[in-house]
Amino acid sequence: ACATGAANILIHSPHLRHSDENQEVRQLDVNRRISALTSGEWPLPTITFDSEASSEKMKSLSVDAIEQMQSKSDEPLRRTGRQVKEKTRRHALLVGTQANLLCYDVEENSDLFYKDCPEGLNTIAFGTIPGMKEPLTIVGGSCSLQGFDHEGNEMFWTVTGDNVTALAFLGKRLIVGSEDYEIRVFEGEDVVMEATESDVVVSLTPIGKENFAFGLANGTIGVYGGEKKLWTRRYKHDVRDMAIFDLDDDGEAELITGWSNGRLDVRKRETGQEIFKERLSAPISGLCISDYRMQGSEEIIVATANGDIRGYGCASSDEAKEEIETKVDNMRLEALKTQKMALLLEKRSYESNLKAVKAKTRDAGLVPQETKLKQNLQPNVTENCMEVLFESTEGTVIKMLICESQSLFPTGTKVFKKNKPTATLSVPIQKDQLGAGCTFNVKAVVGHLSSYQDHIFESTCEIPHFCGFIHRQSHGDLKMPESCVTFEMNERVKSLETWINKKFGMSYEGRGGGRLEMWFKSIYNDDTLCIFFQEGDNDSRSSVKLACKDMQTLGDMIQELADAFSLKDLKSIASFPEEMKAFKQTIQVVEECDRTRLKLQADIAENVNLVKQLVVKAEDVRLVGNMEHMKRIYAQLYELNLELIGEYKKRARNHAELVRNLKTVNSMIQKAARLRTGRYKTQVVQECRKAIKSNNIHALVDIFRSGQASN
Prior knowledge:
Blueprint: E1 2-3, E2 8-12, E3 25-29, E4 34-49, H1 56-59, H2 63-72, H3 75-79, E5 83-97, E6 100-105, E7 110-116, E8 123-127, E9 136-140, E10 144-148, E11 154-159, E12 164-170, E13 173-178, E14 182-187, E15 190-196, E16 201-207, E17 211-216, E18 220-225, E19 228-234, E20 239-245, E21 254-259, E22 263-267, E23 274-279, E24 284-290, E25 299-304, E26 309-313, H4 318-358, E27 373-380, E28 385-392, E29 397-404, E30 413-416, E31 424-429, E32 438-447, E33 455-463, E34 469-472, E35 484-489, H5 493-504, E36 515-522, E37 528-534, E38 542-547, H6 551-565, E39 572-575, H7 577-624, H8 627-673, H9 679-693, H10 697-706
């Protein structure tokens, strides 16, 4: 099936090519912009007859048609034999629009269910999650994930960090890409892996049981092996779709990528080495794996924006395999030639410098052997940011810093330099660049001011997650934040001090005594952060209190603590009065938008019915020749049309406002859940969903505070 820009779907059934019904190509009119399309196999109901007297025509009727016949007269059906209602596994088409999900039975030509998705629908995935016997349709919307069974019942719901842009199943795990540059792997409602990329994730493709490929909006593609990134490549064009297919018939499937410029390339999934590429005449719209020609072997099917469909089979013949191997060998040869030229240039440079050393003449291109590149992380009070200061020794200067990081810099690489080089050069780090595992590679061009050859120092710089908070020994001018989180853990004060030194980029030594009190101030927005720790007795747990008005910061700290000290099930008590006040107002706006939505639907439905009546009346008047009356009716129709356009604009604005506030609600639930771990984190999401459905705002306050609704 292919979705078109004309709001319809073309369904091609090659197995019906030689049938009498001539339904090889069918069209499904959706009449709304299609945002996602996929298919899934479900146990769907089918009615059959076990008597020999039942005709083939009766057997081919759909369930809805037979039930409609039964409602009129049951006698003819009884004569054909005993009716048996069975469930057979069939594929259903899942169509997503801006705020609706349609499940369509292609074989029976009937709708299975139609669901409203007020939280938005950006992408769809089909698969089985832990604890469910049958697969679900997972819908990604505004900071939320919803799962529906084959009857349209909601069986799964959880929240994520931002608008969902890509979904894929890796076995029973769900991979989620979102607009906050994050890739999260869910096992049920628990996040088991999280990675930050350099741009919005637009494509995800599973590879085997543990690996998956990803594509970003900036043209980057890559593969993760578990939690480790195996390789990345970047191009200046947009990624349109990705698929896994064994093109060279070597038993190992390759990664196939379609691009916006019509490029189709095939790469080894372990290394990213390109083994085949082709340029099509139009941008690629999608990729699909199927036995399209009904020959018992699958092909990779490529659809382009101008409507062309191409199929590529695996290289089963010896000639095809030899052709692919020849292309791979040629690519390797070109890469080796390029590497050879670079090594020859480097060799000539070393030989020139060696001659200067033997002649005991100081060449301007040489730097002393004792030259080192130092780095130090420090606050920049003037610019209100952190910076990494690089310094070269032995009278040399830093002419340029080439920094590489997919998560820190939008283009993956950024160059820093001064108009007049000095021995120091700094790299600023903004707040939105900080995160877990924030590192970047540095190539520093070091030499003398008059040198024509320079030395390159390479190093790796790791930025602590919470380095933006500066420790204050004297905190008399700081005010204790009202928002805080308290919890217990089985650790001693020395362990916590070690963790703080690592995550805050400092070297603090406490006074002992089993107690810790530390005050911090953010260099970015002057927020105050307090850490209080009190060791427990021999039989009691240690108590921890974190205070900061930013809920996101405390959630990040708790998740980092849980990873460091293996806190699988952490329960906490939270208090965020300002956040809860704003959250209550958001809930009220959502309720008002929902009431407005229902009222606008009723008004539009009433006007549509009136339009139908006036059209019929105008046609009747035209047939009798009363043109004056017909003109008056069409004038009424014109006014009604203007009213409908106005109502539609109101509905569109109301929907945008509803989606924006629902995103805020889901984001708040995500923040509250991150204040806990394990089953307590899952419990927060489940309890919040129940409270929202029952419109119980007071229960939401209790859930955010203690992690569960009060009795």
